[in-house]
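Model: Ready when you are.
Researcher: Fold this.
Model:
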Amino acid sequence: MPGASLNLARLHRYSGALLGLFLVFHLANQMLLLRGPSTHLATMEALRLVYRWPPVEALLLTCVVVQIVTGLMRLRRRSGRPAPTVAKPARLAGLYLLYFLAVHTLAVLGARGLLKLDTNLYFAAAGLHVWPYTLYFVPHYVLAVTAVFVHLGSALAPRLGMRSLAARKAAIMVACAAGVAIGTVIVSAMAGDAVRIPPEYTAPFPTPSP
């Protein structure tokens, strides 16, 4: 049904726009790690006054659920159709973002509710400081940032007048390169020696016996 598909697309787009606004501030705060953990943590506490306010947090969590549900529904509806070459990167990025949103949101809620941990820098970076979990978390985070850039770049390119196939491909390539670069910078900062992880954050990561 065309009307249902249109409403689904709008719901996905609007919830994504709200999450995207949050991600702009979230990624900017992550980049502040380059100025040291104290700057990052102080900025995060200021931002939390907004996004940890119960109505805003509830809205963001609702947007996460809406993104996952509508994203899966859109992928299912398109599964039988061959995707244009230029659309494939956006679909792959969207699929990875669905995975990341589900895993990351459940991990944050579980750590806060069950482990009573403050899900701050140390929570996010802990897995990067415990071998062999580093092998999972490095690509996990870099791919997430890259997927955000690719997905948004693909969606915004036509709205910015880049409608030709060559222009859209170029936009996706630039978005992918920017995502990899920024993701690598953020992960390198999180995994750096300046970030000292308290033991309560590494405790959930059992290390294999020698």
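Researcher: Now this one.
Model:
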Amino acid sequence: MLQLSRAFAITAIFVFVVVPLAAQEAVKSASNDRIQVRVNEVIVPVTVTDEKGRFVSDLEAKDFHIFDDNQEQKIEFFSRDRNQPVVVGFLMDMSNNTRLHWKTFQDATLELVWNLLPGTPKFSGYLISYSNDAELLVNTTTDAEKLVSKIRKMKPGGGAAFYDAIYMACTRRELVQGEPYEPRRVLIVIGDGHDNASKKSLDEVIEIAQRNLVTIYAMSTVAFGFESEGDKNLVRLTEATGGRVEYPLEKLYTDVSGYLSTPSDEGNYAYKVGTGGYASEIAKGIFRCVAGIAGEVTTQYILRYSPDIGSGNPKQFRSIRVAVDLQNVKVRYRKGYYPFAP
């Protein structure tokens, strides 16, 4: 982990999850044991990077201020250990929209699986695909090769039940003992965010993700020069839950001289599909995004606090605000949480 001076302008990425009040059901493990968790405690995984995306590791608890419905809270637990346990769900868009760069994102997903599931009990994962329907292909496991085997056989085609896939990820898989404290819950979407086949709505799945303490990241499959209406969905889902979107193909031609001035029969492309230069730029974009997501998931501060909430309506949504004692800082965090079970 990079040790960086506090004089750097940094970006702090905050991920908030909350263990609801006693009205909620206790979390079940895969063996059907009841896991007792302290009620009314908000868990705050925190990622801090500088403006170049490098992780910052020298912050202390005193550097953070957390406000719950505008009331500052006392940080009761602080940790900055690396490689903290997580359960990662991989959601793969198998609709027709992924055909153009399918092999590229198939390889990217394999890299993410190998990075985030190293074969130790601390890290678990599961695989869900979605086209006309959402399907749980591999249930929660520590064995990366089970996911790899399925991913290698997948082929895109059909519609996109994106929202139903998120709902399935939050409700229909085996749980690991200790969730959501250790391990934490993360969801990685590989897709463009469009939906044309779900029974659930975007608002419904945002709420179910927040209630189930899931942080959503996304790797957009939108090709350079194209736009997707689904991008707004990805941004809203990730911001609401504390994650972010990576765009591996977005800057494919940024540093290419003559991109718009080099004529060719295929169009004005300095890098032509099928050439070594094109493949190299694709690989660089994928590597950057895989490293960004994997690094953020495993390199985080963990904070906890217990707000005085009292009783309330199951639909009550509490806002969160975060401040950091550093100048020129951009702070990103989820909008808030639901403290009561529906």
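Researcher: Key takeaway?
Model: The mean pLDDT is 78.
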